[in-house]
Design brief:
binds zinc ion, Jelly Rolls, alpha+beta, six-stranded antiparallel beta sheet
Length: 216
């Protein structure tokens, strides 16, 4: 996977410093799982919190951690309670990072022609909503603006807009100044993880008709 579009440094810095909310954190962590370059940048920044590490691939263990793990395994084997195995959520979504599999699952719902949305319910309140967006090949997203920011992580498929082509691993940041005219140019569905604050404003007659339907 070659990543061409990355979050801006200020966002990676805010992530490393732990000053962004959970919804934004999930979007940046999703990008980091697939982007060694940005993982390196974040590691180089100080104050990397434990939650960040939990979202990243395993690294070298610290002194004593093996013994601690062994102790926990010993304790676990002494208990007679059966191990509860729950299915991983979103297991049907290609390209979704493993850490999201522990969140509550949800189902796709229609929001516009050829476009489906699947909410990701965060374990704690966040000003930023997170959801998956699935668009069929050839879909042109309705022209829109937003009142807040919008972070998009491509999981599978691809789209193009004035800023270039965005494929798996790519990160796109939109804000109120951007008028997106997006076209899905992949052969298969394009699935993105989106973290969004504020409202999406659809332009045009069709947009105004659909507006009540896309409230989340
Ligand atoms: Zn990156």
């Amino acid at each position: 996977m070659t990543v061409h579009h990355h979050p801006p440094d200020e966002l990676l810095g805010a992530f490393a410093a732990g000053t962004i909310d959970l919804g934004q954190h999930v979007a940046i962590a999703t990008h980091l799982v697939g982007c060694a370059k940005c993982r390196g940048a974040v590691r180089a920044m100080e104050h990397v919190g434990g939650a960040v590490l939990a979202a990243l691939p395993p690294s070298a263990m610290s002194d004593g951690s093996f013994e601690a793990l062994q102790r926990r395994l010993d304790e676990a084997s002494e208990t007679s309670a059966p191990v509860q195995r729950r299915g991983r959520a979103f297991s049907d979504v290609p390209g979704l990072p493993d850490f999201l599999g522990s969140y509550p699952d949800s189902s796709w719902r229609w929001i516009a022609p050829k476009v489906h949305l699947r909410p990701i319910r965060l374990p704690e309140p966040s000003a930023t909503r997170v959801f998956l967006l699935k668009s069929s090949p050839g879909t042109r997203m309705i022209e829109h603006t937003h009142t807040g920011f919008e972070m998009t992580c491509v999981l599978s498929g691809s789209f193009v807009h004035a800023g270039g082509q965005f494929g798996p691993g790519d990160f796109d940041l939109g804000d109120g100044s951007v008028d997106h005219d997006i076209r899905i140019d992949s052969v298969d569905d394009c699935i993105c993880l989106v973290a969004m604050q504020g409202d999406l404003k659809l332009n045009g007659v069709l947009g105004r008709l659909l507006q009540p339907l896309i409230r989340m």
